[in-house]
Amino acid sequence: MIRVILTDIEGTTSSISFVHDVLFPYAAEHLPEFIRKHWDSPEVSEQLDGVAKESGADREDAGALIEALQGWIREDRKATSLKALQGMVWEQGYQQGELNGHIYEDAAQYLQHWHDRGLRLYVYSSGSAKAQKLIFGFTTSGDFTPFFSGYFDTRIGGKREPEAYRNILEELGVEGATVLFLSDVEAELVAAEAAGMKTAWLIRDGDLPETERFVARDFAEVDAALLRKR
Ligand SMILES: CSCCC(=O)C(=O)COP(=O)(O)O
Ligand SMILES: [Mg+2]
């Protein structure tokens, strides 16, 4: 029986376009000033160590580090250091009212519904845990953070690696068969299934794929097919 819902964000609870056309450009625009301003802060410094290590850029060269980060944003690299820095920059944007998180109406409705029915809800995204709390804390439909019991990011492992899902199960102390993972990326579902989780493939737009896998257009279809008989 499903007792835990683990959900992806981009393409699942929230639109790909919000992440790529609003959040990523915001980070690209504000990162240079943010890094120079917070160069000596331990929180930023720790992430810049990671950028220098992964990119090979000179740790003391702010311009080279910023250039590496801008390249990673363009190629949508899921580097943990970039994701942590993006979260810090977005925090300013949300707090200043320049950003509001997108959440699909059906996701908003069923996250609340599943929480109220006693399911435990968790997020697993490549965006940092801070960024996850922000997108759900500052949505145009209100604050959804009270519905979530926890947040996992790439520090637990990459989203296409079965090991990451095993680590999540261990941390939650539950069996795979009690967890339903929701994502729009098939490779992530394959990895979650290898760890024993149940999955639902969210295809919000375009043609449905020919597949044996459970596919849903929205969270209402997930609820009707997989959760209503609980
Ligand atoms: C937490 S909102 C920003 C999401 C993000 O930075 C990203 O790369 C999308 O990753 P996901 O694993 O949610 O597809
Ligand atoms: Mg996704």
Automatic annotation (TrEMBL):
Key words of the record: Amino-acid biosynthesis, Hydrolase, Magnesium, Metal-binding, Methionine biosynthesis
Catalytic reaction list: 5-methylsulfanyl-2,3-dioxopentyl phosphate + H2O = 1,2-dihydroxy-5-(methylsulfanyl)pent-1-en-3-one + phosphate
SUPFAM superfamilies xref list: HAD-like (SSF56784)
EC number: 3.1.3.77
Cofactor note text: Binds 1 Mg(2+) ion per subunit.
GO MF, one example: acireductone synthase activity
InterPro entries named among the record's database cross-references: Enolase-ppase_E1 (IPR023943), HAD-like_sf (IPR036412), HAD-SF_hydro_IA (IPR006439), HAD_sf (IPR023214)
Keyword set includes Amino-acid biosynthesis: yes
Top-level division of the source organism's lineage: Bacteria
Pfam families linked to this entry: Hydrolase
Pathway: Amino-acid biosynthesis; L-methionine biosynthesis via salvage pathway; L-methionine from S-methyl-5-thio-alpha-D-ribose 1-phosphate: step 4/6; Amino-acid biosynthesis; L-methionine biosynthesis via salvage pathway; L-methionine from S-methyl-5-thio-alpha-D-ribose 1-phosphate: step 3/6
Signal sequence segment: none
Cofactors, names only: Mg(2+)
Quaternary structure and interacting proteins, as annotated: Monomer.
Family statement drawn from the similarity comment of this UniProt entry: Belongs to the HAD-like hydrolase superfamily. MasA/MtnC family.
Function field: Bifunctional enzyme that catalyzes the enolization of 2,3-diketo-5-methylthiopentyl-1-phosphate (DK-MTP-1-P) into the intermediate 2-hydroxy-3-keto-5-methylthiopentenyl-1-phosphate (HK-MTPenyl-1-P), which is then dephosphorylated to form the acireductone 1,2-dihydroxy-3-keto-5-methylthiopentene (DHK-MTPene).
Protein name: Enolase-phosphatase E1
Organism, scientific name: Marinobacter xiaoshiensis
Gene: mtnC
